[in-house]
User: Which sequence fits this backbone?
């Protein structure tokens, strides 16, 4: 059943990606999300920090409290320090492998934001000033710690 759900999720992601077969761009994302942010620069910085193992920089690119969905259930890290303490539980070798292979133009996006891999890391524009939404920045807001084994 677990593998069936993963397969269904992958098929859903592939179908959703077909809406922008030429790949996404900042222009497409800014039109879709109605903002003027540089998603590609954020993604590049985030990916580089993850692959370099720069825990401090990765932690600074997250929104807190940060939701991390483990197989046992969600955990919320309230601070950068808590995230860094648990970094190795969140940032697994398998996740890093998917990050390494991820290209900006192939990111999945929907009304919730963008995600890396198979939904491993979600990020997007976050309003920092309530309903006014005049101060907007990009942050990672959820990690899904999952394993997709090949058996």
Assistant:
């Amino acid at each position: 059943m677990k593998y069936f759900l993963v397969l269904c999720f992958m098929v859903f992601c592939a179908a959703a990606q077909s809406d922008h077969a030429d790949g996404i761009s900042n222009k497409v994302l800014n039109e879709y999300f109605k903002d003027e942010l540089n998603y590609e620069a954020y993604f590049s910085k985030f990916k580089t920090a993850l692959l370099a193992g720069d825990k401090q920089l990765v932690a600074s690119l997250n929104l807190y409290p940060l939701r991390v969905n483990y197989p046992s259930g969600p955990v919320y890290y309230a601070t950068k320090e808590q995230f860094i303490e648990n970094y190795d539980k969140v940032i697994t070798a398998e996740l890093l492998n998917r990050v390494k292979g991820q290209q900006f133009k192939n990111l999945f996006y929907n009304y919730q934001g963008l995600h890396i891999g198979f939904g491993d890391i979600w990020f997007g524009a976050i309003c920092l000033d309530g309903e006014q939404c005049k101060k907007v920045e990009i942050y990672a807001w959820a990690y899904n710690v999952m394993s997709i084994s090949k058996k």
